[in-house]
Design brief:
alpha/beta, single chain, 20 strands, 20% strand
Length: 479
């Protein structure tokens, strides 16, 4: 399958985590990798490792016919000049996931694995971790990989190798991976996100739907867009899950128990109390993970054991501290309005800390739905004014504080990070001043973090650090 690459040059577009993972597999099949990247530092690092490098400027004027294949990092848009030139010259463009799929199918690193693919706007990482936990409970050699942090190629090269891959895939990765046919794949939900990259919701949903091309497709029935994908699913069999009583062919919840009516007549899989994180989003993720693992005949007892063992990762609805009857929750991973919705609806009274880069998403529907739960809102980041305007339209009685960071574009990186931490500290203190006993101060930004912070992890740490500086007297102290 990959013989056409032997002895040929392959262009690796992007020297990130996924780009680095390509080098040894390419060499193992006899190809010659050439690295390109938009950053001079990245190219210098690749060159120091003895790799041939080429800048984008060099490639724009070069004859690309020397390359048998271009493998792009997932974040590179289809309209990137190098990729457009490659397509124009008839050179195939694959993503790193597409390449990993063919490496696995070619059995370069042992027998082909079963892929359990997880995608959706929100809940991907939690569902992937739950899936991996269930597989471990069943004694199945597995690894969580893909967008969760470990490149698939690195997982394939492990010794001893896994039998099953729990693969988290983003819409970018799926866009560049048209050949992937998982043993089972799930689309959890589809809401506005990355519209600037895909060009619209339809294209974004179509990329997510590529998880439904394998043996079993699974869709979240409580999400209208995901549920609609069931009718378009290319999987040999498609099942659904819902937080409610399941029909035949579905998984759901009955009397506080997760129930499978898709892969058997009726089997109890777990208790709602077994699920971490608690709340509707965690239950939905657990049902999805159960569906994926039941699709490969994992017994119900191991589904329960795996879900009991699973604990939510950092910055995903993580409890930080209780102070004077107020809970502080870090859900920095809620990087879009859909994720923030699930987070806010898990609490009756919320002081909302939000803001960042909305990436083209709209917040009006979100605020209209959650308005009656908001005690107050503290807004940070570049799109804080957009959220403030929506709050004024749909929740005019909710007090709003905007904390301004200044012109970050004029700051060097170290100063910008220090400034971000200072802004977060001010925001947390303001939120604490709005709160009273029984409230929850919730960081659920509904936006990306890169306008201020290094990433959502940095944002979550900054929030938690600021919370731990508070004293009882800061609660209810209006600034």
């Amino acid at each position: 399958m990959l013989e056409f690459l032997r002895g040929r040059d392959v262009l690796v577009a992007g020297w990130g985590v996924s780009g680095r993972s390509l080098i040894e597999p390419l060499r193992d099949i006899g190809a010659h990798p050439v690295v390109t990247d938009g950053g001079a530092k990245a190219l210098a690092e690749a060159a120091e490792l003895g790799l041939e490098v080429a800048s984008g400027v060099e490639l724009e004027s070069a004859d690309l016919s020397r390359f048998a294949l271009v493998i792009t990092s997932p974040g590179w848009r289809p309209d990137s000049p190098v990729l457009v030139s490659a397509v124009t010259e008839g050179i195939p463009v694959w993503g790193d996931v597409e390449f990993a799929w063919w490496v696995d199918q070619a059995r370069i690193y042992g027998p082909a694995r079963k892929w359990l693919v997880v995608t959706g706007t929100n809940g991907k990482t939690t569902t992937t971790q739950m899936t991996h936990s269930i597989l471990r409970a069943a004694g199945i050699a597995s690894v969580a990989c893909g967008n969760i942090g470990l490149p698939i190629l690195d997982a394939l090269r492990r010794t001893p190798g896994p039998q099953v891959l729990a693969v988290e895939l983003s819409s970018f990765q799926l866009h560049w991976a048209p050949s992937v046919r998982p043993e089972a794949g799930v689309v959890l939900n589809v809401a506005e996100d990355h519209l600037d990259w895909h060009g619209g919701l339809d294209a974004y949903a179509a990329a997510k739907a590529r998880a439904l091309f394998g043996r079993v497709g699974v869709v979240g029935l409580d999400d209208a867009v995901a549920a609609a994908l069931a009718r378009k699913s290319k999987a040999r069999r498609t099942v659904g899950f819902r937080i409610g009583v399941p029909a035949d062919g579905e998984l759901g919840v009955v009397d506080g128990k997760l129930l499978d009516r898709a892969f058997t007549k009726a089997a109890i899989l777990a208790e709602i109390g077994d699920i971490s994180p608690p709340g509707p989003a965690g239950i939905a993720d657990a049902l999805a993970a159960a569906a994926l693992t039941r699709a490969i005949d994992v017994a119900p007892q191991f589904v329960r054991e795996g879900l009991v063992e699973h604990k939510v990762g950092p910055h995903r609805a993580a409890f930080v501290r209780e102070l004077a009857g107020v809970d502080f929750i870090d859900d920095s991973k809620a990087t879009n309005p859909h994720a923030a919705r699930s987070s806010i609806l898990a609490h009756p009274q919320v002081v909302w800390v939000a803001g960042g880069q909305l990436k083209g998403a709209h917040v009006d529907d979100l605020i209209e739905e959650i308005a009656d739960r908001l005690v107050g809102a503290v807004l940070i980041g570049s799109d804080a004014p957009v959220i403030a305007s929506a709050l004024a339209r749909h929740a005019p009685d909710v007090p709003v504080i905007e904390v301004w960071a200044g012109d970050d574009a004029l700051m060097d990186e170290a100063v910008r990070m220090d400034k971000a931490d200072a802004v977060m500290a001010q925001a947390v203190r303001a939120a604490a001043g709005m709160a009273s006993r029984g409230d929850t101060v919730l960081l659920a930004p509904a936006a990306a973090s890169l306008d201020m912070f290094a990433d959502y992890t940095h944002r979550g740490r900054s929030f938690a650090d600021a919370v731990h500086t508070l004293e009882d007297g800061d609660i209810g102290r209006r600034l």
